[in-house]
Amino acid sequence: MVLKLNLRFIFAMGLYYGLYTITRGFSYVIASMSLPLTMLFLIGIISRGYLLKYAVIGGFISLISTNALSSAGDASFLRLELKFQDLLVTTRITRIDYMLGLMLSYLFFSLPGIVIYAVIGVVLNLFTAFRAFVLFLIMLSLLISETSLAFMIAGMMKHIRNVWGIVSILSIILSVIPPIFYPYTYLPKYVLYILSISPATPGSVIAQGVFGMQPFNYVMLIILIAETAFYFVLGMNFIKWRES
Amino acid sequence: MIEIYGLNKIYDNRVEALKKITAKISKKRTAIIGRNGAGKTTLIRILSTQLMPTSGYALINGLNILKDEEEIRKKVSCIPQEARPVGLLTPYEHILIYLTARGYSFKNASEEARKALKEVNLWENRNTPADELSGGMKRKLFVAMALASNAELVFLDEPTTGLDPLSRLEVWTAIKGLGSDLVLTTHYMEEAQSLADELIFMENGTIIKQGTAEEVLSEFKGKVRIESRKPVDNWKKAGGLYIKYVDSEEAHEYVKMGYDVKQITLEDLFFKYGVEIES
Ligand SMILES: Nc1ncnc2c1ncn2[C@@H]1O[C@H](COP(=O)(O)OP(=O)(O)O)[C@@H](O)[C@H]1O
Ligand SMILES: [Mg+2]
Question: Which of A70, A212, B133, B180 is disulfide-compatible with B137, CB 3.0–4.6 A?
């Protein structure tokens, strides 16, 4: 099977549903930045600047995770309340186009936060071109893997009211427990591997390695790549494109 | 043309929403009428390849819903029941997203969006976020999407439910502007008569009648409906009333007895065939 993407649709979703809604719904953008910014503040104060680097690098990862979480609610809303997904099923796009279109819109939606963090990172002199590039790739894998999980949840929901409880549990797994804001070496090895079920864990470990904060861990690189592919396929199968 | 062969749908909760339906829909505009729960939405979602049937199949202009979904989706547009626009997006953006999904270039999509929005009288509001549109405008937006799609066949599932009478008329006008074949569902009888050449009356997962308004009402020809608020032996209970059909010549007898006499309308299909839900 050849994969034919409808790039126009994906771009239109990114542009209209992601980029334009930033200006119209800025309160959502602020909400999506509140957790990483709070962490930045707290960690900076409590560690007296010692862990500030973790807060900044973790902030990038947390931004994507937070948005991925709200995308579970968003994708459920589009499917169950607006019937937007059904509307698009009877068109030429595939479920992959739909997923990628929404992912691009969530990425665009995260841009204001990413810019803020990038500025802080530049001020603290954290970046080289290589580091920035790897960080971007990590964020991309997290976007794909975590929003795929969100699509899976959205596909399994029968009522929108059920989604919020699941999201709050998922938020702990995706964005609180994993070593996003603290050195991954604080964790016993086996705990680290258990936590790596959440893509945020390998993502953070790789980031901390590349930014020279902790030793680089190759196993986590393999885990992140594998999880990105695995969760994407999972999302594809559960998104309920043509219902049975 | 839609040919339906033994279409059956049993949901996970064991509800049999369609009971081996076989039918042919060949008129330009068809209205499926029936009460809530009759199976209209299930039928539409199966025909527009959103939902798999449990058994049976259907052909849409010769294409099999089980095998040719890709081809069917190019030719068919379906506006789901209770579809709502995305609050932050404008009518223009909705149509652009929808048309790019249907394979249009941005240039063509933009041109079609302009035409469709003018046609349904939404051009003035093309840049208003959908949150700020009235209920009628929101529905017209969806009709505009179907219009702009230039699909061969359009399905509209309850396009006017919940609208006030004036908004409903506006949506009707928009629907009349559709050039494609049309299948719509409704439980408003005057809507079915105003918009469709043929009616299909569904109840309880089956098709009970199909034809013009006159044809589906042929069994009531020359009759009137007698209504009583109090129970009468052997009269049918229908929505809090007790009813009976008699030849119109006998009507005056019942008037003398103090009963109400009513002309036959399409609603009588509901009264006659509706399965009374006991409470
Ligand atoms: N997703 C579903 N799961 C289980 N039962 C359903 C589902 N959708 C509809 N039903 C049931 O199937 C029957 C037909 O519903 P539907 O096709 O929506 O009828 P209508 O559109 O005529 O109101 C109803 O009894 C309804 O409760
Ligand atoms: Mg319905």
Answer: B133
